[in-house]
Design goal:
This protein is an alpha/beta fold and 216 residues long. It is 33% helix and 21% strand. It has helices at residues 30-44, 61-71, 87-97, 114-126, 144-158, 189-195; strands spanning 4-6, 17-23, 48-55, 76-81, 102-105, 131-137, 169-172, 200-206. Helix 2 links the parallel strand 3 (48-55) and strand 4. It is globular, with a radius of gyration of 16 Å.
């Protein structure tokens, strides 16, 4: 059982979109990340929430999250794992607390910009997709070859045709019951949903080098 601490004062009565942002030692990125989420909410007319999951950070991430929660009047919620459990468990914690009809998984390191990607994901869902996967453009983090091999093998094994299976994604709430999260299984969310028969769209999104912190 995860030992968690919640910073939440209230929960929304209604929510179109829940952004789930897991992270560890991302204190330098969190405020801009949340600002970009709400910029997208405002531009798209979305009633949304942001759930920040601190996965056992050793910097002052939890203090930054407390500050942000206080600033956004119940629209940002924070949960802290008292030790690091890994990204899969952090995502699971976020999903357990999410209220939205559409759920979006975003890393909080600003290698992706939510104000750009949220409208892209919403447009794909409005066109009929159940699941949307981001396809990184301009990536230069030294992991491109490894990623290509992973995607090639995954496509062959699962009968898919996607370019980037391990990036930001969005899906309808009904997908949750078909997602089993344990170990390092967040990498297989798209495979699970494909196997369950959901329609997956892939959309190009920009990649940015991080300004603060280190890649996990």
């Amino acid at each position: 059982m995860k030992n968690t601490e919640s910073y939440n004062k209230s929960t929304p009565d209604f929510c179109d979109v829940s952004i789930i942002g897991p992270g560890m030692n991302e204190s330098g990125n969190l405020e801009e990340f949340v600002e970009r989420c709400f910029k997208a909410f405002d531009s798209e007319g979305i009633e949304g929430e942001v759930i920040l999951v601190d996965d056992g950070s050793t910097d002052n991430t939890h203090e930054i999250i407390k500050k942000i929660v206080g600033q956004y009047s119940g629209k940002v919620r924070g949960i802290r794992h008292r030790r690091n459990f890994g990204k899969t468990e952090a995502i699971k914690t976020g999903l357990d607390h999410a209220q939205g009809k559409i759920l979006m998984l975003f890393d909080t390191d600003l290698e992706t910009h939510p104000d750009e990607d949220i409208p892209v994901f919403m447009a794909a869902i409005k066109k009929g997709a159940d699941v949307v996967s981001g396809y990184r453009q301009g990536r230069s983090d030294g992991k491109v070859l490894t990623s290509k091999i992973y995607n090639f093998v995954s496509n062959k094994l699962f009968g898919m045709a996607l370019h980037d299976m391990n990036w930001m994604k969005a899906f309808k709430r009904e997908c949750i019951e078909f997602i089993e999260l344990r170990g390092d299984w967040h990498r297989f969310i798209l495979m699970m949903l494909h196997s369950a028969g959901f329609k997956i769209a892939e959309e190009p999104v920009n990649w940015y080098p991080r300004k603060y912190g280190e890649s996990k």
